[in-house]
């Protein structure tokens, strides 16, 4: 939360007339932190996801699909003609059958996927004996006959370890051709951005606070960090609108990442105002300040020269030269 200076009038016990005048024209100010909070609207940009497709033609004999649910890499949520079909995430799509000795980026990706699922294999880039054994163990874990080769008809490629389900486009007992969509995935959150960047911001790096998520923002108002996007994607306010392919505006707070020190003074204490520049006076001296904002009848300022005094004149003494 942002806080502003606490204001307190100087008090005196049994003052004489001169002291009354001095007390009435002096105001104590206390420096406080200020992070220039602004209410903003965030727009969530999404792109339509590719569906998950049947790896073989035939009759669907098992189909574990529920709208709003998910499929996980390393499982077999679908069977065609009585044979379970393995869902497998790899960084590179599995574009060919592998029998033994093949090399390439797809083999690297397969080895990393097997290792992440707990089936020990080294990333050698070669479809070697150890990789064939690990793949056979994975097949067996989902009810597929042990087979020391990659048969693309047995494997549905997944672009991420977990696949959200926006809708089920196939069904038990249906006949499907190879490559037919069996489920639609929710749109992918690609970037979160400020619908518009507020004007008159205090210079400095900024963050956005949305729900439980706090994120750094680029100068043009975008959140690009994949880790942060994952957190935003799981926020209840976002998941409630996950099926929408249109930009979704959501409320957030846009604030300085590092609060600055300010004081709150009455507007009448300012002299020689020129844009955001002004002066305050105290005890016959002037102090240059930058006007930052107005809040609850006070003006928030910070020094641009010497440190500010503990008390300011109210009203400011315009006879004292500014600066």
Please, could you describe this protein's structure?
This is Peptidoglycan binding-like domain-containing protein. By secondary structure, the protein is mainly beta. It folds into 3 domains: 84 residues, conserved putative lor/sdh protein from methanococcus maripaludis s2 fold, CATH 2.40.420; 81 residues, no CATH class; 99 residues, no CATH class. The strands form 6 sheets. The protein has a 6-stranded antiparallel β-sheet with strand order 3-20-24-23-22-21, with no helix packed on it. The radius of gyration is 32 Å and the shape is elongated. 28% of the residues are buried.
- Shape descriptor reads elongated
- Terminal CA distance: 33 Å
Classify the oligomer.
Answer: single chain
Order of helices and strands: EHEEEEEEEEHHEEEEEEEEEHHEEEEEEE
**Spatial extent as radius of gyration:** 32 Å
Measured as a percent range, the helix fraction is 10-25%
Secondary-structure class: mainly beta
The overall pLDDT, averaged over residues, is: 87
Number of domain modules: 3
Q: How many DSSP helices?
A: 5
The largest sheet is: 6 strands, antiparallel
Uncertain segments: 1-24
Physical arrangement of strands within the biggest beta sheet: 3-20-24-23-22-21
Q: What portion of residues belong to β-strands?
A: 35-45%
Can you count the beta strands? Answer: 25
Protein name: Peptidoglycan binding-like domain-containing protein
Organism: Marisediminicola antarctica
Write the layout of secondary structure elements.
Layout: E1 7-9, H1 17-24, E2 26-29, E3 32-34, E4 38-47, E5 52-53, E6 58-63, E7 70-72, E8 75-80, E9 83-89, H2 105-116, H3 129-141, E10 155-158, E11 162-164, E12 167-168, E13 175-176, E14 181-184, E15 188-194, E16 206-210, E17 213-216, E18 222-223, H4 226-233, H5 236-239, E19 248-256, E20 260-265, E21 271-274, E22 277-282, E23 285-295, E24 298-303, E25 311-313
Parallel strand pairs: 9-10
Antiparallel strand pairs: 1-2, 2-25, 3-20, 4-15, 4-19, 5-14, 6-8, 6-13, 7-11, 8-9, 12-14, 15-18, 16-17, 16-19, 20-24, 21-22, 22-23, 23-24
